[in-house]
Fold this protein.
Amino acid sequence: MSSQRVIDGRDMQPPEPLEKALEALDTLPPDGELVLLLYCQPHPLYQILRRNGYVWTETMQSDGTNEIHIRKAASA
């Protein structure tokens, strides 16, 4: 069973959403997923995710929220 953790960073000031996301990823179980809610695209986070073997999908909600689902990439 996968676990999901949600961080609502829409009312946080940078770099707090990035810091909270990185802390959550450190403790994310192998089958877990982190959902990050932001009003922007966190390009510095994307670079960190790419370097550390994570994959993500994004959905733009009608209120302008960027919903980012982050998972550890499947091992080959």
Remarks:
- The chain has two helices and four strands.
